[in-house]
Amino acid sequence: MNYALIMCGGSGSRFWPKSRKAYPKQFLKPLGPHTMIQSTFSRISNLIPVENIYVVTNNNYVDIIRQQLPDLIEDNIILEPMQKETATCIGYSAVKLLKKDPEAVMIVLPSDHHIEDEKEFISTLQQALLIAENNKALITIGVKPTRPETAYGYIQVGKKIDGHWPIDTHKVKRFTEKPNKEKAIEFIKDGRYLWNSGIFIWKASYLLKQYKKHLPDMYESMKRIRDGLGTDEEESIIEGEYRKIEGISIDYGVLEKSKDVYVIKCNFKWDDIGNWTAMERYMEKDEWGNQVKGKFIHMDSRDCIICGENRLIAAIGVNDLIVVDTEDVLLLCRRERDQDIKELLNRLSEHVEFKEFI
């Protein structure tokens, strides 16, 4: 049977100060009337029945998830005792699904991505499920780059696979994580590179075989967790194994090492909306090139992204700024330095008096 796993543990740090550890990006409404996790849940429920949709998260977000996803079955919330990167949360979730269904096929989805053309999205996943069900394959969805983006991972496509598939599917030749601007430009000119969407499809049993090969220590932890499920010691076993595990992403830990990774070149519009400059793709510009959400008045100010709440934002003679005003934080940032917001948060964490703002 087919299942969906929505990963909902990230903090969305590059979208600070709107996104906070206590209320991260996936629970916000940067576009439209629904939060990002609500849109993700609604989208996948057109393919996977609600009873087979799971969310993996931590205790900090359970109440928000219950509030925002009232149709999610309570028992389908998978709780991690601590964050240990995506290979851990996906492996743990795979073990739980296999306990229920030894033939489980998983669609793994981030909770905070923007996708348009949902009909094409569903068609792409249907093809991925068919390939995964009948082959020893780890499948990812690739997106044709439209700009030299340095915040995304890239996939170099290899040989096209056999079969009359309506959507092009290739062996993955190589993964490259977040290149610099020059390298990203090279990738686009090359024409054989796709963005890595972070959407994955595979049989849960085959995924764990790949863990056994490439992440043997984590595989042994997952075996012990599997044996503890449903026992009186389940909670303590899971927490104990999590403490032993060295966290690693699924990309580094498995996908970059496996020879059985395939990529489907999607035809739907996908966006991570991972930082403030991404918002410029969805906000209208005024005659000065400013993009505004909230109350704003200016004199001779150009090419700014303004995001306010209740207070009026006024500017005189400023250019190329990101201004984000919240109830307790005002962010001023040069547009070309929005990737440094994560580093700013690291500095904030070093000051006890500022930790409440993270």
UniProtKB/TrEMBL annotation:
<dbReference type="Pfam" id="PF00483">
    <property type="entry name" value="NTP_transferase"/>
</dbReference>
<keyword id="KW-0548">Nucleotidyltransferase</keyword>
<protein>
    <recommendedName>
        <fullName>mannose-1-phosphate guanylyltransferase</fullName>
        <ecNumber>2.7.7.13</ecNumber>
    </recommendedName>
</protein>
<dbReference type="InterPro" id="IPR029044">
    <property type="entry name" value="Nucleotide-diphossugar_trans"/>
</dbReference>
<dbReference type="InterPro" id="IPR054566">
    <property type="entry name" value="ManC/GMP-like_b-helix"/>
</dbReference>
<dbReference type="Pfam" id="PF22640">
    <property type="entry name" value="ManC_GMP_beta-helix"/>
</dbReference>
<dbReference type="GO" id="GO:0004475">
    <property type="term" value="F:mannose-1-phosphate guanylyltransferase (GTP) activity"/>
</dbReference>
<comment type="similarity">
    <text>Belongs to the mannose-6-phosphate isomerase type 2 family.</text>
</comment>
<feature type="domain" description="Nucleotidyl transferase">
    <location>
        <begin position="4"/>
        <end position="286"/>
    </location>
</feature>
<dbReference type="InterPro" id="IPR051161">
    <property type="entry name" value="Mannose-6P_isomerase_type2"/>
</dbReference>
<dbReference type="InterPro" id="IPR049577">
    <property type="entry name" value="GMPP_N"/>
</dbReference>
<dbReference type="InterPro" id="IPR005835">
    <property type="entry name" value="NTP_transferase_dom"/>
</dbReference>
<dbReference type="GO" id="GO:0009298">
    <property type="term" value="P:GDP-mannose biosynthetic process"/>
</dbReference>
<keyword id="KW-0808">Transferase</keyword>
<feature type="domain" description="MannoseP isomerase/GMP-like beta-helix">
    <location>
        <begin position="294"/>
        <end position="348"/>
    </location>
</feature>
<keyword id="KW-0547">Nucleotide-binding</keyword>
<keyword id="KW-0342">GTP-binding</keyword>
<dbReference type="GO" id="GO:0005525">
    <property type="term" value="F:GTP binding"/>
</dbReference>
